[in-house]
Amino acid sequence: MAMSAKKTDLRSRELAQIHIAKKDLGLDDDTYRDMLWTVARVRSSGELDHAGRASVLAHLKARGWKPKSNGFKTEPPKNAKVSKVALISKIGALLTVLNKPWEYADGMAKKMFKVEKITWLTSGQLHKLVAALEYAKARMQA
User: Fold this and answer.
1) Is the domain of 12 the same as that of 57?
2) Tens of pLDDT along 116-139?
3) Cys bridge to 51: 43, 77, 92, 122, which one at CB 3.0-4.6 A?
């Protein structure tokens, strides 16, 4: 399968999850579009990029939506390396919980690693950034 086909497939699955969550949570169209605007600054889910879809899904899960299991184990093996895309998605979810923009993560990357954008970080650096955001989340919740 070509890389673009995989990306399209992932995008379709994520958009489907967003629409299923909308239905399961009983959101009317106006409330749904307001939520999209608040979380990702778009009015249509079709305008969401990968990070935006991750943020919206994290927001919907935080509001009580639980995806139904398809019977397959979705967690990677304990010794598997986490991809950069997954780490960036995690960062997006943490930023949503912290109510911070993506520029906040870029600023942390610059301060911690002297790198301008989080997309330029290595996997190891992304792990450290996730840990720093987890600490910030714990401080906020305390």
Assistant:
1) yes
2) 988 888 888 999 999 999 999 998
3) 92
